[in-house]
Design a protein that fits this description.
The protein is α+β, with helices and mostly antiparallel strands. It has a single domain, classed as Cytochrome p450 (Orthogonal Bundle). The model has no long low-confidence stretch (mean pLDDT 90). It is globular and about 85 Å long. The strands form four sheets. A five-stranded mixed sheet has the order 1-2-8-5-3, sandwiched between helices. A three-stranded antiparallel sheet has the order 4-12-9. InterPro entries: Cyt_P450, Cyt_P450_CS, Cyt_P450_E_grp-I, Cyt_P450_sf, Cytochrome_P450_monoxygenase. Keywords: Heme, Iron, Metal-binding, Monooxygenase, Oxidoreductase.
């Protein structure tokens, strides 16, 4: 008897479907049964089945909000995927992020552009690199840079006065100011963003696309590489946005060296970075390393500092009583027709400090997770032993609105939290200061935080002293709904305000 084997299209489809479904079923069962995380850790069912859901949430820009809601529902420890936990309690901060922590940065950071301090995973390599850069951000160095910052804010004020009484997109103008500051300090020359010229429009376009391109690569390197073969110019420009940003930094640094050399009296942070710190025996980074670091710093600062200035002005427009108090504090120090806007005179003003700090608390520049990975055999985080190789994180959006430390009304804008009953600057309780996660914590905290603070306080003081700030309408509230793509992004990508000279 002869047996005939006949292969049909339906046989092939059934076989492929069986293999695919079988693989999916095995992955689900594996995640449910063999996850190293104890099964009693609460979280949505989907989080036990697949890590893809939290990736999709992150891509949608709603991770911070959703994780915050999960903590409100489930408590201080929440499962986000078969191998990921989110924590929200004060004692866990030092364990995960403090000096000597056995938790290291997640490999996800390697997707954020070229390898600089921010992307470096290895703690020892980060320590060596940070040592060669930290002197650039010392207060005495930043004080020398203040004239450059003031000059950029002069340009901002000029543009705002031209538009007084009309609707302006404050997010745009804040970002352009911070971009020009970054150019002056990091590259030795302004982008010309506030002059409407230079390379600012092209640079900002690529800057906006770069983060999205990095996120796409992190989600699926294979898909990213596949898209690179498609002959669509707009798509290729999008995928190459990060390369444009880094190439610009490299070219600008070469131009700086041609104009000023390595030993220069030019006031810029780039000058300091090129020189190293001879008094401490610290050699500078290599030129390629420096160009990466300055590009990363401009990349980070433009959105984070620009957004902070914007949200502070938005809150002052929503809370005119605090706006009046801030204006009185600033102009009340005037001598005749002259008001001192030097940072030294502004930095400890109680109301300005309160407005700035409360803005950071409610609208942190990086609202959602700063992911870490447990190493070795794992570690004890709070009351839980977390196995090695587990993703763990905390987020500023939840920590900084914890009612245990920020009552009453933790969701309300209230600068009085940071002003003492005697009307003096109040840094907050030790617990409140620890829960303020906006700059990160431990050895990986933000090196540029003092520079950002200087830019924000100078900009806010000068704007509020000269203008009454009002909402352009109810649409502004919709524009300013918080979303996050690692950094804070207003939903409308603009902030419509009206500034009227006072």
């Amino acid at each position: 008897m002869e047996l005939t084997s006949q292969v049909t299209l339906s046989n092939v489809v059934v076989t492929i479907a069986t293999v695919v479904l079988g693989r999916i079923a095995w992955q689900v069962i594996s995640n449910l049964v063999f996850s190293p995380i104890p099964s009693n850790i609460p979280g949505p069912l989907i989080a036990r089945i697949t890590p893809k859901w939290i990736s999709l949430v992150e891509m949608s820009g709603s991770r911070g909000r959703i994780v915050d809601a999960l903590h409100k529902r489930y408590g201080p420890v929440v499962r986000l995927s078969p191998n990921e936990l989110s924590f929200n309690s004060l004692p866990c901060i030092k364990t995960i992020y403090g000096a000597g922590s056995s938790c290291v940065k997640s490999p996800a950071y390697e997707n954020f552009g070229k390898n600089g301090m921010f992307q470096t995973i290895d703690p020892e390599e980060h320590r060596r690199r940070q040592k060669r850069v930290a002197h650039v951000f010392a207060p005495v160095v930043l004080n020398q840079m203040e004239p450059l910052i003031q000059n950029c804010v002069d340009n901002l004020m000029r543009e705002l006065k031209k538009r007084a009484g009309t609707e302006v997109d404050m997010l745009h103008w804040a970002r352009m100011t911070v971009l020009d500051v970054g150019g002056e300090l990091m590259l030795g020359k302004s982008f010309g963003a506030l002059d409407g010229g230079g390379n600012a429009p092209s640079y900002v376009h690529h800057l906006d696309n770069a983060f999205a391109a990095f996120a796409l690569y992190g989600l699926s390197p294979f898909a990213f590489r596949l898209l690179e073969y498609l002959p669509v110019q707009s798509l290729q420009d999008f995928l190459a946005a990060g390369e444009y940003v880094y190439r610009y930094g490299e070219d600008a640094m070469k131009d700086y060296l041609q104009r000023h050399g390595r030993q220069s009296d030019q006031k810029s942070l780039l000058t300091k970075m090129l020189a190293g710190d001879p008094s401490a025996g610290v050699e500078p980074l290599t030129d390629p390393q420096i160009s990466i670091e300055v590009s990363n710093l401009i990349f980070a600062a433009t959105d984070t500092t620009g957004n902070t200035i914007t949200y502070a002005l938005y809150q002052l427009a929503c809370n005119p009583d605090w706006q009046d108090r801030l204006r009185q504090e600033i102009v009340g120090r005037s001598h005749g027709n002259s008001t001192d806007f030097s940072y030294q005179s502004l930095k400890d003003l109680p109301v300005l400090h309160g407005v700035f700090t409360e803005t950071l608390r409610l609208h942190p520049a990086a609202p959602s997770a700063l992911p870490r990975v447990t190493t070795g055999g794992g570690c004890q985080i709070g009351d839980l032993h977390v196995p090695g190789g587990t993703l763990v994180s905390m987020q500023a959006l939840t920590l900084q609105r914890d009612p245990e430390y920020f009552s009453p009304d933790p969701d309300k804008f209230n600068p009085q939290r940071w002003i003492s009953p005697r009307g003096e600057l109040d840094p907050g309780s030790p617990e409140q200061r620890e829960m303020m996660f906006v700059w990160g914590k431990g050895p990986r905290s933000c090196l540029g935080q003092h520079m950002a603070t200087m830019e924000c306080k100078i900009s806010l003081a000068r704007i509020v002293a000269h203008f009454e700030v009002r909402l352009a309408g109810e649409k502004t509230h919709e524009e300013m709904i918080m979303t996050d793509h690692f950094t804070l992004v207003p939903k409308g990508h603009r902030c419509s305000l009206v500034l009227t000279e006072v």
